[in-house]
Amino acid sequence: MWRRLKSTNGYAMIVVLLTITVVGIMVPILFMNVFNADRQFEKTEEDLQILKLREMGNKYMAEAADQSSDEAADIIQERLHDPEYDGNPANDFKQVFEARLKSHKLNPEYTIYARNEKQDGQQVKVGWEDIRWGETEDELVITYYVIPSLTDNITMEERQTSTYHINLPEWFLTYETRG
Question: Where would you find the membrane-spanning parts of this chain (predicted)?
Answer without folding.
Answer: 12-35
